[in-house]
Amino acid sequence: MSKIDYKAVFSKVIERRNTNSLKHDGMAERGMPEGVLPFWVADMDFEAPPEAVLAATRAAAHGIYGYSIPGKGYYEATIAWQKDRFGWEVDRDWIISTPGVVFMVASAVRALSEPGDTVMIQNPVYAVFAPVLRANDRKVVSSDLRLADGRYEIDFEDFSKTLEESGARIFLLCHPHNPIGRVWTREELRRMGEICLEHDVLVISDEIHQDFVYGDNAHIPFASVDPAFPAITVTCTAPSKTFNLAGLQASNAFAANPELRKRIRKALDACDVGLNPIAIAAAEAAYRHGAAWLEGLKEYILGNYGWLRRELAEGLPGVKPHALEATYLAWLDCSGLGLTHLELVKAFADKAKVWLNDGATFGTNGSGFMRMNLACPRATLDEGIRRIVGAFR
Q1: Which fold would CATH assign to domain 6-48+291-392?
Q2: Is the pTM of this model over 0.85?
Q3: Which of 153, 174, 312, 359 has the CB geometry, 3.0–4.6 Å to 366, for a possible disulfide?
Q4: pLDDT tens per residue, range 364-393
């Protein structure tokens, strides 16, 4: 088989407007002006791997969309992906399949804590965490990440103190971290885990971006770091970010502790949810055949990131992208523009006509930052950069 030109594949501009796309449609309803170019929500403007598209098409062509369950092949592909990519040996019994990672996080929180209990996060962090936790009647505290010399670090003294003083029952870990693009090292993961063990705190580890790690960095599943960690951990993963399958709604959690699994399954049974046949088919095919596509994608995203850095350094040095160790989301430090938070957000939307995520939605310590989705064709990114530089310069 001839080698696929992935640069050409990912350079293809595909019209997504008027396709019920959250990212591209309904701008007026979300307060955005007409003509704004979207770089916000974390889905990609790329077609899924061809093998996944073919599998989904075949499943759709069957014509019967009844209640479905993942089969042996689905679980084998899911287990093999974790072993081959991360050296993590997981058992079939550990796997809990759900429609999405946020759904899984909310379900696990309900199963493993009580209303009024506290959950700790690390701001700035994925903007959905805090609202979902509060909607489920949990208190939220943050051990804020510390920005030192342009790189975010964990303040372990504050981490331990916050857990102890808040009486938190759960620590919700974002790993790799969205939006800052950090990959937590083995030592950082070990120290966080040891502190959680010391304070009798369970860990829900959101590892949905596990496949987007670059350079010398390596994703290490939190539960694999220490023999004691699996007993306190629920690990959430999905093919959705990796292969752009979010709309099909399929994710997997791994829980080695049978008591935690029992409680989570009971919470899920109360919702009576499952996966749909098209999602099952596409996810299995992507895990079995999508590795080469993924490597091409990562190379393309890194190219986009390098291009963004160069263009901003030359045309708008007041906006500085943080180092991208993981994800496909650039974390832009806009403090050099000299604008207030409200002025900054308004200028990006109304003047530059680009739709980025307001950094303050990830926590108050995200104020002055914007998050930009780089998973788009270079031509789209180029137009976004042109608008940003032109508006602020």
Answers
A1: Aspartate Aminotransferase, domain 1 (3.90.1150)
A2: yes
A3: 359
A4: 999 999 999 999 999 999 999 999 999 998
